[in-house]
Amino acid sequence: MCRELRREPAWVAAIRLAFLRGEVTVEGVVEEANLRPGHERTVRDVLSTMADRDLIKPLSGNDDTYVAGPVLVDSDRQHLDFSKASDGGAHRWQSSDD
């Protein structure tokens, strides 16, 4: 994270959004990472690379919205305890198995 500007890498913001909000969008990553306007193309490239690596996957054929992919879902962090999270945070996404 860039402490002076309170910015973080787009991929970190994307993973956070996938776990906490259940979906990842370019606009959401720009906001979450505190990026300046004009970085949307870079964020799209990052999300595309993450999708190629199965970290995230497109939501129902929508190329602009992603959900957690198999690599994130099957990671060791999947079993975190969200029972003490606030009502406004830490949402679980719907998996295709539900």
TrEMBL record:
It comes from Halomarina salina. This is MarR family transcriptional regulator. It comes from the Archaea.
